[in-house]
Amino acid sequence: MELTEEIAAFRGGGGRPARMLGEFRRATVLAPLAGGELMSGAWGGVRWIYVFTGEEALARFALARGDAGREWEYAAILGARLLDTVIPRVDGPTGIAVDVADGERAMLLPPVVGIVPDEAAVDADSTSTSGADSTSGADSTSDAADSVDAGRETDR
């Protein structure tokens, strides 16, 4: 399945977190840029890097922000690179917000063991297992994507 299908299956209760995470890692996503840096917003004490599964999803984000009239610069980046290389270099807890303007089709990948490297995980000290099977953090935050509000107030 493609990433969007894995997200839909997961949000519908029939998906498997490890499959969705694996698909994200293999997918090339679009990350909008602001001032030459990856665009992000803050919610719940976490910095969320915005990524999109395609130009259509990015266009919906622009429309939700009331900023659809301009050309958006973005980087096409492999999900694994975001999780393994970019997130560990960001100060503070950082996760990924996928298709954040799409409500029920959105997904948050929180900075927890099994999703990001242990050194970037907020629960690394309290979690005794790691690896792709420890993706339960996605369960508790997937509905929070609706609350990020397309990043209006906290962009950087």
Descriptive tags:
alpha+beta, 7 strands, 27% helix, disordered C terminus, single chain, three-stranded antiparallel beta sheet
Word description of this protein:
By secondary structure, this protein is α+β, with helices and mostly antiparallel strands. It is 27% helix and 21% strand. It has one domain. A 4-stranded mixed β-sheet has the order 3-4-6-7. The protein is globular, with a radius of gyration of 14 Å. The model is unreliable at 128-154 (pLDDT under 50).
Number of strands: 7
In round numbers, the mean pLDDT is 85
Strand content: 15-25%
Which structural class do you get from the secondary structure elements?
A: alpha+beta
Number of domains: 1
- Give the overall form: globular
Low-confidence stretches: 128-154
Largest sheet: 4 strands, mixed
Physical arrangement of strands within the biggest beta sheet: 3-4-6-7
How much helical structure, as a percent, in the residues?
25-40%
Radius of gyration: 14 Å
> How many helix segments?
5
Distance between the termini: 32 Å
Q: Write the element-wise H/E pattern from the N-terminal end onward.
A: HHEEEEHEHEEH
